[in-house]
């Protein structure tokens, strides 16, 4: 231990000197006296040089006289000033918190690498403890959406904050605001290219806008009542709009000219959907109505497009009272059509077959009206939404 002073650096010796000065004027003055004796005994204090360059042992009092500007609270002042300087360079989690014992982003030893965004592994998104997600460390503020979705697929639901962060909303900004309708707009749709936006409003008009700069490109007229739903076919050539006047109007998207007016319903149109595929060489447009019916219209892809004026229509009334068909959606391949109604039933129709479209399923899956249906993108499964919760 006597030669331990040879392994101490100059900073080590200075720190021991400052610690002794701090203890000497505090509640641990006895410890300071013991530490003084140890420093002298083990020859830890730096040696002094005489005028001939020879080294001599130095006492603690001599070292104090050599540095008269070092006050008893010098070490405390150094510690007090370090934190604000570090906080300006590397932000802590809690600003203004004075502590020498912090960890993580509160540590006085933190580096820029310690506060970098931490990306979790897919296994951490897939892990569950008591059927709950393992919450990430406080340094993880962003999440990889691909890993989040994979983890949700592997193990079940994840918190919404994982997939939609607060920073996402802070980056959202209004790109364009255009006043183009005289009444409320309840129908909005992008075309298949994403370059155009189609709107249908209660002013009886359907309008086509540029998604790039918001310019009005075309106004489609002809409806005599409010627009209730709009749809575009897969080829991006036809636009169908249903309205409260019980009619479905179809326009050509290339020329904005009317193609057909379809009349088969006796109630307002609640939904229109183009079949995304060609089934047995035929193309279809499906519509649902408040009269409780589902109509499937066949049309040709020739020029000009010709719609069969007599659709295959299913009148779905299982009980007295309200039997409105509210929602409908095609499967990803177009082979099946699912529809929901106000009588709590979900019905599925198959479009292929020698007899044409047929109903293949009718089930009372809810206890209230079925107002939304959506098929999975890669399988023959769909979800239905109802007001029963």
Automatic annotation (TrEMBL):
One of its GO terms (cellular component) is nucleus. PANTHER family: BRWD3, WD REPEAT DOMAIN 9. Residues 3-87 form the BRWD/PHIP N-terminal domain. One of its GO terms (biological process) is regulation of cell shape. It holds the Pfam family BRWD1_N. It comes from the Eukaryota. This is BRWD/PHIP N-terminal domain-containing protein. Keywords: WD repeat. SUPFAM superfamilies: WD40 repeat-like. Signal peptide: none annotated. It comes from Homalodisca liturata. WD repeats lie at residues 178-219, 220-261, 262-297, 363-389.
